[in-house]
Amino acid sequence: MTDPLIPDQTPGQPEATRAPDVASNQASAPASGASYAIKNGAKEASPDSPGWERATLEKLAFASLTEQRLARRWRNFFRLAWLAFFILIAWIVISRNGPAKDGFMPHTAVVEVKGEIASGAEASAELIVAALRGAFEDEGAQAVVLLINSPGGSPVQAGIINDEIRRLKAKHKKPVYAVVEESCASAAYYIAVAADRIFVDKASIVGSIGVLMDGFGFTGLMEKLGVERRLMTAGENKGFLDPFSPQTERQRAFAQTMLDQIHQQFIDVVKTGRGTRLKETPETFSGLFWSGQQAIELGLADQLGNLDFVAREVVKAEEIIDYTRRDNVAERLVKRFGAAIGEGSVRAIRSNAGLR
User: Fold this and answer.
1) Tens digits of residue pLDDT in 250-285
2) How far is CA 44 from CA 28, 29, 53, 213, 323, in A?
3) Helix axes 155-172, 125-137, angle to 10 degrees
4) CA–CA distance, 35 with 24 (Å, rounded to integer)
5) Torsion over CA of 62, 63, 66 and 70, rounded to 10 degrees?
6) Which helix (H) or strand (E) holds 105?
7) What does the pLDDT average to over 315-319?
8) Where are the beta strands (DSSP E) in 151-262?
9) By three-state DSSP, how is residue 272 classified?
């Protein structure tokens, strides 16, 4: 009979031989815990296990690759964002520089002449002539309207525009009308007289048919301050517009002759453009300016009317399309950040007198 309190023993096997098995099982547990596992593609190992340095390096390598992949994705995102931004800017530039609507349907073409008429300005001959050519060449344009709001500017730029208007009228056989808003003076009126008819508001400012050259003279002030001007020139008249040098009567007469010649060119253009409608008086070409109502009485303008009136009642095409060319966005940004200011400073240094 077997005693239940005594565990079974395998026959032929001594009891002492079973103890080492238990010990060996207990000793194997730490070895199983020390073995490294795979987590997130990297080996994690205990510092006490063999090869733990390699596992740590692999983990760092995987982390570096993940970080580089993420950085590359962000770079691609920003590149695409900038590309989309520049595409949008290009679309805005193209849409603003071209006709806003369908040019094939009958319409009234408008070209704005606003601000100072000068090279590099929005009312430069380069931009206005380009706009005029586009308007005249469009088959849907029934007439071209110059929408003017300008105090004047360069007679050279105005002369270029005037000549081109007359050339395009003869080539395309389309009427041209000038519509004056607040002001149409000096070089702006030089442009307007190329139109077939001039429409004004009763309070518009029209005229100022004259030429001027301005500057300053500081010779008297320099004498009082004891300042000596040291100017060296090759040519006795090279520095006659220098504000710190005295001006001789001969030099003054030379400048006046040049102004009179340009003034006569202006007068001839006005007489050619206005013809028998002009009611000339001694003050017509004196440089005075008049209200729109007075301008009609003097024959400097034809009748009262605005852009909508001309498109609806004169051209008989109420649809209005703007062909005006303007600076693109990049040029505006350059000017905003000082390029235009720098250019103006250089011009001021190089030239002490402006002709307009």
Assistant:
1) 888 988 999 999 999 999 999 999 999 999 999 999
2) 20, 18, 10, 87, 71
3) 10
4) 17
5) -170
6) none
7) 93
8) 176-185, 197-200, 205-207, 213-214
9) helix
